[in-house]
Amino acid sequence: MSRALRPLLPVVDTLLDRAVVPGYSKLGYALRRSWWDADLPADALLGHCVVVTGANSGLGRATAAGAARLGATVRMLCRDLGRGQRAREEILADCPDATVVVDECDLSSLKSVRAAAARLRDELPSLRGLVHNAGVMPPERTETDDGHELTVATHVLGPHLLTAELQPLLAADSDARVVFVSSGGMYTSRLRTDDPEFHEGTYGGAAAYARTKRMQVVLAQLWAQRLPGVGVHAMHPGWAGTPGITDSLPRFARLVGPILRSAEQGADTAVWLLGAPAAGRTSGLFWHDRRPRPTSYLPFTRSTPQEAERLWDYCAVATRG
Ligand SMILES: NC(=O)c1ccc[n+]([C@@H]2O[C@H](COP(=O)([O-])OP(=O)(O)OC[C@H]3O[C@@H](n4cnc5c(N)ncnc54)[C@H](OP(=O)(O)O)[C@@H]3O)[C@@H](O)[C@H]2O)c1
């Protein structure tokens, strides 16, 4: 990229973002990638451990592979050990020297999250990165064994509890990072703490998904305030061709199929946030394609600090042991 054009890049980048389709697609990724600084060094995470939830598929598997390629010891938290092992083998086929371990963890189960965190605390001295990637979009309102609605349990309560339980390990690393994999879909939703479990009205999977993805962005900001010294980030991957999209939104996937990103392209910013020095100097921001983005465009989607604190209180009560 010529020096003369460089001052224009932020403008082009912002235009791509506001136009949504080009920015979220592989076109946006390809354009932005052409002007990024050099990639992280191959040893950026060497000697450090990274935990990725929902790591057996799609973006989670790509994030685990990306962290392994940067030298991290990777703990893949998966609800199905067989699927986890198969994904581990695929990662090792690509990166044979990596240390990759599969741990059983159902993020929607508070008991399972506590058990996985206890194992990690027993086995690890410290934690460089925790990526909250596991995601679902159920067509109907479903409750977990704990009695919580499934999307809020998977996207919000499980990650909240896991972060709390792994705090000692994060505190033991001088440059720890936590990454919430949210979604651009959260822009359509405001924070709702009056009905966090979707008891009112007709349940819609996409609406519950967007609302809980909004909660993740606010939760990242709340954790950023409470974890000094840890970089807590939320990000969105754009649109990537993963089972999450093709199975949950088949019509959308067919419509935008040719312009979907690969899983690696969608996971790029999550991996970058784990290792980039620039990301370590910030906390509480919302990222896409290696750049902080606004958290709201529509005025009705902005929340007050009081509403955010109500989310914290809800999470604290709902995850109490
Ligand atoms: N793909 C996109 O374009 C896109 C866009 C915006 C945001 N995202 C976000 O990216 C994340 C990954 O999605 P994806 O597209 O890669 O979809 P995916 O291929 O369906 O992956 C989702 C992963 O989450 C796991 N998971 C779901 N519920 C879980 C639970 N209770 N406990 C543990 N693991 C659980 C799944 O495990 P199983 O295999 O066992 O089901 C799977 O490994 C999600 O948070 C999603 O919201 C994706």
TrEMBL record:
Protein name: NAD(P)-dependent dehydrogenase, short-chain alcohol dehydrogenase family
Superkingdom of origin: Bacteria
